[in-house]
Amino acid sequence: MTPGVEAKALVKRYRDQGNDVEAVAGVDVDIAAGEFVAVMGPSGSGKSTLLHLLGALDTPTSGEVFVDGISLAQLTRSELAAVRRNKIGFVFQLFNLIQSLTVAENVALPAIAAGERPASYGQKLADLLELVGLAGKEGRYPSQLSGGEQQRVAVARALIRDPAVVLADEPTGNLDTRTGEALLELFVRCHQNGQTIVLVTHDAKVASAADRVLFMRDGRLVEETPLHPRHREIAELVRFEDPNGRT
Fold first, then answer.
1. How are beta strands 62-67 and 70-71 bridged, if at all?
2. Which segments within 101-192 are labelled E, that is strand?
3. Phi, psi for residue 12 in degrees, rounded to 5
4. I want to staple 4 with a disulfide (CB 3.0 to 4.6 A). Which of 43, 81, 143, 196 is the partner?
5. pTM for this one?
6. 70 to each of 6, 30, 74, 193, how far by Cα in Å?
7. Residue 27 and residue 198: Cα distance in Å, rounded?
8. Cα–Cα distance, 33 to 196 (Å, whole number)
9. Is residue 245 one of the residues assigned to a domain?
10. Residue 93, by phi and psi: left (phi above 0), alpha (psi -120 to 50) or beta?
11. 219 close to 43: Cβ distance less than 8 angstroms
C-alpha cells in the first residue's frame, strides 16, 4: 500500500476555560495514497481537529502523523511549511481568504508562495475558476462575494498546485444543492486522478462519494464503513449526526 496519510495513537489536548479537553483521543488511521475518505460525526467530536493535525496545521499532544511516509514530528518548522506548501491542499470551513486580495490572487497564493511564475499556473487558475463557477469574477474581493462563492475560492486555492493530499473541512456546507454537487464531482475527479481526499462532512450524500466513511465521537474513531459502489445507502450509519449541522 502506497503511503498517503497516517496517524498513530494521535492525541490532542488543550485548555478551555480552565478545563482539560481531549479533542482527539488516541486515533489510529491509515489512508492510502489515492484514497477518498469521508469523516463524519456530531459537533465537538474532533473531526476538524483531526483534519488540522493530519494537515500539519496543528501539533499533536502525543502520537505521530505521517504524510507520504514522512513523520511530521521529525521535521523542522521550515520543513513542515514545505510539506504544507508542496504536498497538501487545505479547504478551511471558514474560508480563510485574504480580504485585501482578489479572487484570482487568493486562488494563486499557494503557487506564488512556492515561487511559481504566472506563466506556469495561469491556465490552471483559469480552468479552476471555470470549474468552480467563478469565471468572470477574478478581480472581485472576498467582501464582494457570497459565502458560497468564498467557499469555492477556498476550494480552487487548495487545488491550484495539484497537491497529493487534499483535506477539506465541510467544503459543500455553504453551497446550494447544485453547486455542492458540482463541487463534489470536482473532488471525485481529483480522486480519480490519484489525489488523496480526506473530507469532513455532515452530508450523507457527500460522504457516499467516498471509498470509506470514518465516524468520530468524543475524539475517537468509533466506526468505519467501506462504501462501494459509491452510492451505497448509508442513512442508517449517520446516527451520530448532529441535526443542527455543526462541526
1. antiparallel
2. 165-169
3. -135, 115
4. 196
5. 0.87
6. 10, 13, 8, 22
7. 15
8. 5
9. no
10. alpha
11. no
CATH code where residue 120 lies: 3.40.50.300
The C-alpha cell at 224 is 468505519
Degrees, nearest 5: CA angle 13-16-18: 105
Helices 103-113 & 118-131 angle (0-180, nearest 10): 140
**Contact (CB, 8 A) for 172 and 206:** yes
Per-residue pLDDT of the chain (247 residues), as tens digits, is 567 899 999 999 998 888 888 999 999 999 999 999 999 999 889 999 999 999 999 999 999 999 988 999 999 999 999 999 999 999 998 899 999 999 999 999 999 999 999 999 999 999 999 989 999 999 999 999 998 899 999 999 999 999 999 999 999 887 888 888 888 989 999 999 999 999 999 888 899 899 999 999 999 999 888 765 444 444 344 434 444 444 4
Judge whether 5 and 54 are in contact, CB under 8 Å: yes
Domain that holds residue 121: 33-59+77-240
Q: What is the largest CA-CA distance in the chain?
A: 52
Cell output for 84: 504544507
Q: How far is CA 44 from the centre of its chain?
A: 17
Residues of the chain by 3-state class (helix, strand, coil), percent to 5: 35, 25, 40
- 16, part of any domain: no
Helix (H) or strand (E) holding 179: helix 177-192
**Number of domains the chain contains:** 1
11 domain residue, yes or no: no
Q: Please count the other Cβ atoms lying within 10 Å of the Cβ belonging to residue 199.
A: 27
* Euclidean distance between CA atoms 242 and 56, whole angstroms: 27
Residue 15 resides in a domain: no
